[in-house]
């Protein structure tokens, strides 16, 4: 390493000035998080109270990482891990700076008595959603949220209920019934489609609601304003187009196109180029000149937007030998030759073709006007549903926080209080900010002035803004970087050093992305120009060098193959190439980290079987939908069959599943002659079963012995117990391996979450929820990590492989309303809107135009997605793509593929590869091996559940300890203490869902009423209620102030579960237990933790904890034995005492001596 300081160290030092505000652009690998932590430490050393600083992230994982790294720095500075500090490089400038800043904080901590190590909750490092919730719940009346609304990750049922409430207005006497009728009629009376589209719009209301303000103006004025905005949009595009014409060619362009227009008009042609007739100079930039510019585009460009190579009769140049015609054709071809390099003009001229007439038809306006009335009504219906169900989504929490703060002209008391308390605001990943979150930040910083001691620190990378689907708008970052935020002077800084990638990768990225990213920023269009980096990492001597750097693996297919590259032979060739690359990297360095990144999960269909075939172990991160796991598919079929005995498809799948395993031939015999009879009735019918094989009759009888009683229990048991009991009795556990049990457990947890009695469950809703979850990635020591490019953001790997670059993305569905915002200061002005076309109607030009603008933004984001993928690599990057070949020339990739985005920079590599290939056949023509036959996996026909040992008996709930066996250690005893413990357990489970970072004293105060109600319902006498409630609150306060308590409740742990129910045979006894808390830590250790809520009033607390450990050791050892039967990982057991902050832990040792 040539220097311990990066070449941008002065920028990094400036960013630590606690008196100034900054927006920092931090490219991939530039140490963004480290800089953010240093800034936070610098600020901590200057404030009176840690709560004066708020650091905001966008994920719980990022918040936890930042908090842990701050605490680690403070621990190192305090000398608690001096050994580690001594091992650090003596000249690591970043570490030295961090330690120096941390030492200043430690001194401040001691001087001010903060006790940050004991009370880390005082450091306000939290997600933006947690901040919104804190704000909203402090002012429940003003926020209109209420005091006890819960954030739900899946509010689709609530969206559907609100949509159905709107649809119901069709037949109700309400002011909006006519508008509902208009929209339903426009959609050909398809109520189901109308409902689905309303659901989709409600899920995205954060993007459009701020633009719709019904009742401000009458419809005629509103129409005039929107059409005027359309006209300005058209005029602005034409003005930019006119400017792009080289001045020295303007006259010639007008003459050539005018001649073509005159010729076409004289010949009666319907070509749009005839609009150029009479053209003597360039058209103006007004909207009325739109057709003239479109005529110019028709003369000079092909339909796909390329400069013409010839001029024919259809273009206004007939095949005639008249001197004048030949002269003009020659002049036209000469003009095209001069324009060949005018890329900007070509792009803008092609874009002009899509410009619409800036006026709605009466029919379009009638639909749009109805939408402008109904969409806010639908939002109001949704808020009613939220209030009724006590659940909200994240958008509503953000909106509630904004309501609680008021506005700049009329701030609320809460806004004024926060303005006084918050001195410094830090925001990570600022490029992913949505408009709602940005408005909240603006409200929090309203009135901040330069030099008043309050600062704003925004850090992110607009080149990595890839979350438009989550409402992120990269234009907000670009605006602040250029103009600042309100009255606050926000200075713009750019980091350059890349600490991640080898120099050859950095050089490749620096060379390629300036060619494929826009040349300049455009906040409205979502265009981000490239900012180069400099490599700080130098390859170590002796480090593996073969295969390092960037390699483009070009593949080819014949012109007859599908253009989007979906031929199976070509995909198999790519899969084999990927497999070979992984094997080669592992052979070179067994410890290498490898990532396989794809744009869409469907791009892995050919690759995963090849990896399995080659024995390559992989860990898929949110890759395989839970509903597509075979064991879960069988469970879904079982659940559907039990819920709906007449669902023949579900019953056939159930009988085909491994626990029954009837052949297709037997199933056909069973159902062929009785198409309308429920299958369970056929199984009970001797006549229907007489044609079955002997094997099938045995299998059917065994299934019926379980399913018959189960169906009769419909509506009498909770959903999970009902389905799980039938599954176990059928032999389900014997049909899955250990790895599949995690996915089975996830399914049963899903049933728990639906919280419905068996008779009222919705099978379709269950299938929908299962489809939204992903199979558990539990492969130990995987050779390769597989994930989407979005999931890879923030990660890094030695080797990165990106296949399927030639494959197109998903097409965007049509929405009820198309909208986009143009450049302008006003939030609700400069808006372009268009209604959805009728089902059989060709999309109107305005609607197409707005969708095209959004498509352009998507293309910009696709390029940024490629940048994210490429910059994950430390040592090697492999890019794979396939293109079609026509007459030994390479055809351009499809427009919406990632390869098309890279084509200007790497297209030459494909041309070279094609030339080097010679006469070899295309790589995609490799013959596929024959498909393997279908293997029917099933239990033996006479299978029966394994018997419990003869001495086995059922163990019920854990017995209470014998009062006579130990001295009572509590100042309370009896029912009241037990009920206090019950409420504490429930509260800890609630906290564990969101994590302790989302809770503070204000949040606890809000839940006080709920806990009091629980205590009352449990039967605590009124005179004991205040003391009982106080015990609950004291215990929870202690947990939130306890580092270990917060760690135990962290929801980001792997396989984290609260109140985990386990059943099994232990010591010849059938045992049912409930584990308070279990998870797998970062070291792969499975923790089993039991909460003990008792208090000890004596003096020797440690002796009390030791006695409690001995008292409950056997109970936790039993938990360990049950867990070890299903999880091979090392296990540690723990007792946590919330009321005293006590902790005891020990390793579980299995009977065979294994940990």
Description:
The chain is an alpha/beta fold and 1155 residues long. Mean pLDDT is 85; it is low at 80-91, 540-547, 919-934 and 950-973.
Descriptive tags:
Rossmann fold, 25 strands, globular, single chain, 5 domains, 1155 residues, alpha/beta
Annotate the secondary structure layout.
Elements: H1 9-14, E1 21-25, H2 32-44, E2 53-57, H3 60-78, H4 82-87, H5 93-112, E3 124-127, H6 128-138, H7 140-143, E4 150-151, H8 156-168, H9 177-186, H10 191-203, H11 205-208, H12 219-244, H13 247-266, H14 290-300, H15 323-339, H16 343-352, H17 362-389, E5 391-392, H18 394-405, H19 413-421, E6 424-427, H20 435-444, E7 455-460, H21 474-483, E8 490-494, E9 497-498, H22 503-516, E10 534-535, E11 549-558, H23 568-588, E12 594-598, H24 607-613, E13 618-620, H25 630-643, H26 648-656, H27 664-671, H28 679-684, H29 686-689, H30 694-712, H31 719-730, H32 738-754, H33 763-772, E14 784-788, H34 789-792, E15 797-802, E16 817-821, E17 831-835, H35 845-870, E18 873-886, E19 889-890, H36 898-917, E20 953-955, H37 975-994, H38 1001-1006, H39 1008-1017, H40 1025-1040, H41 1043-1048, E21 1054-1066, E22 1069-1080, E23 1086-1091, H42 1101-1124, E24 1131-1137, E25 1142-1147
Parallel strand pairs: 1-7, 1-8, 2-3, 2-6, 4-5, 6-7, 9-10, 11-18, 12-14, 12-15, 13-14, 15-18, 20-22, 23-24
Antiparallel strand pairs: 16-17, 18-19, 21-22, 22-23, 24-25
